[in-house]
Amino acid sequence: MLPNFQHLELEQDGAWLTVWFNEPEKRNPLTNDRVEALIELCSALQTAPVRGVTFRGRGGIFCAGGDLKSFKTVFQGGATKDDVVALSLRAADLFDAVAALPQFTVMAVEGAVMAGGFGLACIGDMVIAADGTKFSLSETRIGLTPAQIAPFVVARLGMPAARRMMLTGAMLDTEAAQAVGLVDQVTDDMDAALTEQRKTVLAAAPQALATIKQQLAALPFQTRDAQRQMAADRFAEAMLSDEAREGISAFFDKRKPNWAGG
Q1: 206, 243, 213: which is closest to 230 by C-alpha?
Q2: pLDDT tens-digit profile of 141-157?
């Protein structure tokens, strides 16, 4: 049972969860409360019977990043460097938590995808963008840095494109965002695109999918020997699992495995 949140709306349909950012009048910012809710949700999803998660914003707007009003409060309230460091590290907790989800994650981006919202999109396993969506790492335009999202932006776009985006704060349209590798699919019918993506994901074995995500996340930090050993261990565990036994039996029986379409 997933918790209820004031700062998020959850819609579960079978094994698929849609997480809505629900403050469109403010462009769905990553407020402190929303960050805390997302971290708590990600913790619950580690063991929830959910196979895919879509992140989406109400009002046709994905996420405009950090809450500038709270930043203004910091300036007026005389916050110390330690206070701001703690705030930044909590944002890092959020991005790490989303990246560590065992489920397949889809970022359904529409309207505006800015700053921290851009970083959040970079974490998705799949990014589907509505035609006409605008993207920007706008921090330098207001004297800030895209600090905690930088590793995820580089991982998604590669260093050359990430440097250009982070240093200039340039605005991209959907075509340009797809060209640099941020967007996987552009659509003029988001609901239909999400339905098709869900069908594709639910045909995959859930534990195998989670294992692949875990292995991919570890790769950049491992020696080659560690990569080889982790791959061997995970493959052996998969080969000996009930999931693989069912999948291979289904293949020879010419039927769908019991997880398909869940």
Answers
A1: 213
A2: 989 999 999 999 999 99
Q: Return the axis-axis angle of helices 150-157 and 159-168, rounded to nearest 10°.
A: 130
What are the DSSP E strand ranges found in the chain?
8-13, 16-21, 52-57, 104-109, 112-114, 126-130, 134-136, 171-172, 185-187
- Per residue in 54-111, pLDDT tens? 999 999 999 988 877 767 666 667 778 898 899 899 999 999 999 999 999 999 999 9
**Predicted TM-score (pTM) above 0.90:** yes
96 backbone dihedrals φ, ψ, rounded to 5°? -65, -40
2, 34, 59, 133 from 189: Cα distances, Å: 29, 27, 15, 13
The count of residues in the chain is: 262
